[in-house]
Amino acid sequence: MPTSGSKALKLGWQVACVCLLGIFVPALVTSLGYSLTDALGPGPGFFPFWLSLIGGVLSAAILVQVTLAKAAEGTAMSLAPDRRMALQAIGVIIALTAAAALFEPLGYRLTMLPFIVGVLFILGARSPIAIALTALAGSFGVFHVFYQWLKVPLPIGAFGV
Amino acid sequence: MDTLAHLMAGLTAALSLQNLAFALIGCILGTLIGVLPGLGPAAGTAILIPLTFKLDPTGALIMLSAIYYGAMYGGTVTSVLINVPGEAASVITCIDGHQMAKQGRGGTALGIAAIGSFVGGIVATIALVIVAPPLAQVALKFGPPEFFALMLVGLCLITGLGGRSLLAGLTMAILGLLIAMVGIDPVRGAPRFTLGIPSLYDGLGFIPVVMGLFGVAEILLAIQQPRRQVIKTDLASLLPSREEWRRSIGAIGRGTGIGFFLGLIPGVGAIIPTFVAYVFEKRLSKTPERFGHGAIEGVAAPESANNAYANAAMIPLLTLGIPSSPTIAVLMGAFIVNGLTPGPFLFQERPDLVWAVIASFFLGNILLLVLNLPFVGLWARILHLPYAYVCVCTLLFCVIGAYSLQQNAFDIGVMIVCGIIGYGMRKIDMPIAPLVLGLILGPFLEKSLRTSLEMSAGDFSIFFTRPLCLTLLVLAGIVLVASALRLQPRQLREGSTT
């Protein structure tokens, strides 16, 4: 936790603390809805209640501590990556999200084929042959290995692929 | 005698062709993970769990353990050849290892690292065989209050020793514990924090969360790291000269001792033993000025400490059910996935499995030596792989791993969200280890707390009237207070400079 450092780092911690409070406070309220005690002793809400309470207090303490700490002026360190790398990271997350959404409807093979092509392209791979081979191996090849050999259940989509 | 008989039976099981193959595959995959910068042992072990879903538990755990200690070795290759640690514990090896490579002694650096790792691993495994059974016997006498207190000590150690901020560590541990509460209450069967989403009734899966926090987050971070050039160095002569042997033998012995003893303490982490071993060697040396300029002891000691730590860290897991680090927590998750709860009862209930896994550590260390001495050139060549392809492979395994445990695409979503959270946490240097430990220990901690309170009809004095439990709670308190005091001067100092 920065007691000194760049403004960006300080802001990052402040945002993190607010997010943590955004988890602990609703959890505290929700846990009050579960019984804290019952005939046998502590109820389902007992542990969550105390955890949320302590977590909330600690998060607030960190937030106060970080806010009161001085940020070093002129510290150039930025938490944000450069534009190209940020776009690559966002692209990977979008591709993963799309894969998660299509995973069961389309099946593993039809989802991962374009996913691999897309991610490789996003990350700067440009050799069509290498991309095609990796996509085929990663979709149909990996499916075969996991599904047939390792007996790991992977989804088969609506098209039977 | 009983221990020896168990070990022999374990060795027989581990030497079966199937288990030997699992150990070999685990060592290869582990070394590969270690070699690839940006993919640490925790992420590596997590993403490879799906490979073991349908294996028998013994084979699965032999393979995953081999992946773990293989990864701990593999990090050396990148440390020496590109001055980037393949995993955090290899940071200190960069200092002299990379200098040795620049001087054309890269082969020797990797050779002594392999030998040191081997010695460290074997000695620590022998100590594990000696220490683990009596420790497990003692732990068998623990009741729920003692287990609660013991887990609290483990969490406090990890929170107190592992990070730079005690407050942040505690908050993350509590967050991990709270996340573990999602799902059906194990005692009363009431749903908690499920938000009406059926997929959450089984709780947030440990595997998707860990794959996100480590696997996806590491990929997102790795995208932003500049690629480094692999240094050209002599990899043909792996064995040290007579003079280098003379300098290394003591360093390997001391590094092994340091790594082993620090491995017994949960929360120390893999970096501290390597750092302590390095500093110790430098202080002991008559020519400390050589350190930082290619001193072979600067590679031998931390590498021995690293592998001794890796094997010793299995002792708290196997005997007490306390994971010492995030990677060990992932291994604990693998035990749980296989329907096994690590701890003293495992020695009683499944001695065949425990001893086969322990025996496999011996074989794994031998396999690692064989893999890493003659094939060091091959590992070095892997560093030339374009990183985009490595990222894609990692993401594939993450997706498969997150999905296949419950066969639910919702878990892929959980993994993605955790990946983004893990990325953010790394960027601001927020500790992840306490969160992971809290997540894995949460259900056990809650169960022992509630069972204890049921035993006493809700009376908290049960924790203070049992001597062992009280001792452990006092120890937990001491750890927290000591951590707070340790941090205070630095925080004040930092504050005063701004």
Structure description:
The complex is a heterodimer of chains A (about 160) and B (about 500). Chain A is mainly alpha-helical. Chain A folds into 2 domains: about 5-70; about 85-150, no CATH class. Helix content of chain A is about 70%, strand content about 0%. Chain A has a two-stranded antiparallel ribbon with strand order 1-2. In chain A, helix 3 (about 85-105) packs antiparallel against helix 4 (about 110-120) and helix 4 packs antiparallel against helix 5. The radius of gyration of chain A is 24 Å and the shape is flat. By secondary structure, chain B is mainly alpha-helical. Chain B has one domain (about 1-490). Chain B has a two-stranded antiparallel ribbon with strand order 1-2. In chain B, a hairpin with a 6-residue loop joins strand 1 and strand 2 (about 190). The radius of gyration of chain B is 22 Å and the shape is globular. Chains A and B meet through helix 1, strand 1, strand 2, helix 2 and helix 3 of A and helix 8, helix 9, helix 18, helix 19 and helix 20 of B.
Give a quick rundown of the structure.
The complex is a heterodimer of chains A (161) and B (498). Chain A is built from five helices and two strands, in the order αββαααα.
Write the layout of secondary structure elements.
The complex is a heterodimer of chains A (about 160) and B (about 500).
Chain A: H1 7-33, E1 37-38, E2 41-42, H2 46-68, H3 83-106, H4 108-122, H5 128-149
Antiparallel strand pairs in A: 1-2
Chain B: H1 2-14, H2 17-35, H3 41-47, H4 57-82, H5 91-102, H6 106-139, H7 144-162, H8 166-179, E1 183-184, E2 191-192, H9 206-223, H10 242-263, H11 271-284, H12 297-312, H13 314-320, H14 326-337, H15 344-349, H16 351-372, H17 376-382, H18 387-404, H19 410-427, H20 433-455, H21 462-465, H22 467-497
Antiparallel strand pairs in B: 1-2
